[in-house]
Amino acid sequence: DAKTTQPPSMDCAEGRAANLPCNHSTISGNEYVYWYRQIHSQGPQYIIHGLKNNETNEMASLIITEDRKSSTLILPHATLRDTAVYYCIALPNYGGSQGNLIFGKGTKLSVKP
Amino acid sequence: EAGVAQSPRYKIIEKRQSVAFWCNPISGHATLYWYQQILGQGPKLLIQFQNNGVVDDSQLPKDRFSAERLKGVDSTLKIQPAKLEDSAVYLCASSASTGNTIYFGEGSWLTVV
Questions:
Q1: What is the pLDDT of residues A26-43, one digit of tens each?
Q2: Chain B interface, best mutation among A32, A62, A85, A101, by max B CB count within 10 A
C-alpha cells in the first residue's frame, strides 16, 4: 500500500500558484519524497524529489515539513498544460537503483482559464 | 537525451490471443521496470530487472505473463493467452544504476475484446 495520502482533486486558476499537499506521517528516515505527474494518455513524468530540505528545479518547488510528516508541491505559475494527476510517493534510496514506485490514487489537478 | 521507447503504442486483440510489447530504456540505464496501469488506477509494478537479471517479479501473473531482458538492454513483455482483465496500459521505465529517479515511456495501450 502507498504510504502517502493526497486529496483526490484540486482546482487552480491559470497563472496562479498550485499548492498540492501530501501526507506521509509514517515515512521512515531513509525514504525520499518523490513527485510524479501523469498527463492524460502519457506515461508518468518525474517532477522533483527531496529528503528533508526544500528543493526547487525548473518545474516546481518541494516544501517538506521539519518533522517530515507532510510536504507540498508548488507549481508557481500553473498553466493549462499542468492539468494532470499528481502522485506523491515515498521511496527508499540506498544510493543505488533499488526499490520501485508504489503509486496511490494521486491528486487530479485541473487548471482552469 | 532520448527517453524510454515503447512499441506498439496501441494494440487490440481478442481474448486468448497473444501480444508482445517492446521497450528500449534510456541509454546506460541498468534497471528496467514494467508497470501495468488499469484505467482509473495508479501504475502497479509487474517486474523489475537489474541488467539482465530479475530483481522482483512477485506481482507478475506468471501463468500468462512473461518478460525478458536479453543482453541487459531491450526488454519484451508477453501475454499469452490474454484475458479481458489484461486491458490496461503497459508502462516501461528505467533508472540509472547510481540513482533512483525512474523515467517512464509513453506506454502501450492494450484492449482485449
A1: 888 888 899 999 999 899
A2: A101
